[in-house]
Amino acid sequence: MAQGKIxxxxxxxxxxxxxxxxxxxxxxxIATVQVYSDADANGRAVAMADxxxxxxxxxxxxxxxxxxxLLQAARDTGADAIHPGYGxxxxxxxxxxxxxxxGLVFVGPSGDTIRLMGDKAAARAEARKAxxxxxxxxxxxxxxxxxxxxxxxxxxxxxxxxxxxxxxxRGIRVAxxxxxxxxxxxxxxxxxxxxxxxxxxxxxxxxxxxxxxEVQVLGDGSNVVHFFERECSLQRRRQKVWEEAPSVVLSEKxxxxxxxxxxxxxxxxxxxxxxTIEYLYDDVSGDFFFIEMNTRIQVEHPVTEMICGVDLVAExxxxxxxxxxxxxxxxxxRTGHAIEVRLNxxxxxxxxxxxxxxxxxxxTPDGPGVRFDHMLYPGYAVPPxxxxxxxxxxxxxxxxxxxLLRLGRALRELKVEGLPTTAPLFAALLESDDLRASAVHTxxxxxxxxxxxxxxxxxxxxxx
Length: 464
Ligand code: ADP
Ligand code: ADP
Ligand code: MG
Description:
Blueprint: E1 8-11, H1 15-27, E2 31-37, H2 44-48, E3 51-56, H3 67-77, E4 81-83, H4 93-101, E5 105-106, H5 111-118, H6 120-129, H7 145-155, E6 159-167, E7 170-175, H8 178-196, E8 201-205, E9 211-220, E10 224-236, E11 239-245, H9 252-268, E12 272-282, E13 287-294, H10 301-308, H11 312-320, E14 337-344, E15 346-347, E16 353-354, E17 362-363, E18 370-374, E19 389-397, H12 400-413, E20 415-416, H13 423-429, H14 433-436, H15 445-451, H16 453-458
Parallel strand pairs: 1-2, 1-4, 2-3, 4-5
Antiparallel strand pairs: 6-7, 6-8, 9-10, 9-12, 10-11, 11-14, 12-13, 14-19, 15-16, 17-20, 18-19
Bound molecules: adenosine-5'-diphosphate (2 copies) and magnesium ion.
One adenosine-5'-diphosphate is lined by residues 135, 160, 166-170, 172, 204, 206-207, 210, 212, 235, 238, 278, 280, 291-292, 442.
């Protein structure tokens, strides 16, 4: 029996997240329609779905970002709901509005919520209103460059110049002094206009040696619960490469404060669906600062699913179908420790150069506590047009030590022939004492990569 009013779900995405959404829909008794570009006819999600519809050429602008083509595919197949996944149109308020205007269900928050929280400067203001600490910085958008330069000096350099419409690690610059600020700020504004169609920028103080900690929330428009935190401090170019839950540095008291602040903010905006509130955490002072909200399912959601025993994608579909949360905070518990690593078609020993290619032999890890969310099969030709994420290897252990052992075991079982992947990076990272002790921060990985190239090569990187 289908749940709520959704009977057939169209997946407006591709790759591993499309596979993930098909599974959640099927586990909920809902039929699936997978759209695909000409470059993705060989995709695993296309083979898995009940129906598949070609929506255009490889370029995303002409397929996965083509709102008219997506709505037409939904009409042609009689789909009654659309799941946007992450990336592409997931945080596009106009898309959410268009889906609803077409009489379909958008699996996510309302267009108005996306508009409010997707604008990173507006979201900062909402956070402050809800009593959530934000990074010291500008009050809203920077309009006047002279006033902004003065403010930057007051906050203290280095400062970050961020695009209000930025995301995916893009649209961020660091200015170390007034001269650099005067040069970078106008440049950042014009680049944001070109890249995101919105030139709005704002300023934040750089929090040095911070950890990235985020809280998973789920709301039904009136109530909100959290599913604890994830730590994503291992980043390269401000993009996450390794994520864990829980964060081992939070005391129970800080954890409660952090999660309560996320719930307060989500409640203040009447949040509906799955969302993530991102913070920077200073583990010396114990202070946390809101940085942004992602109004969608995140890449790293499985670590939360592993420790909380919840299917977040099924939950967001259920709520989109009009159902209530059906649980209180007291019903949500966590157990053990989970780690996710991102398997990209990139060579970690060659500056992470993307290497799309054809998958040869494939051996996938499994067994107790191992989950591999991916899009691979032997003979699969990885198209060069999209994000290089092939999949995510997720492990669970009773504690972090056992999760680390299990990650090592799973990586030894994994074999992907035919193209380089980031797997050797993770095998190398497991030998780092700092990582094993979780003595890391958001700028820890980049210098480590510089000094550990030989170790990454020894683990199999660089065979390109
Ligand atoms: P995006 O929208 O691209 O995800 P975020 O604002 O979430 O951008 O920031 C991405 C990453 O950049 C953070 O995880 C962190 O590593 C770094 N970062 C962002 N803001 C700051 C800050 N004020 N100080 C230090 N690092 C920051
Ligand atoms: P998560 O917070 O889920 O880890 P990421 O920051 O890694 O999210 O981004 C998830 C996906 O969305 C990636 O494929 C990323 O490239 C894409 N993405 C998110 N926002 C943008 C944006 N504004 N422009 C381009 N890509 C984006
Ligand atoms: Mg972010």
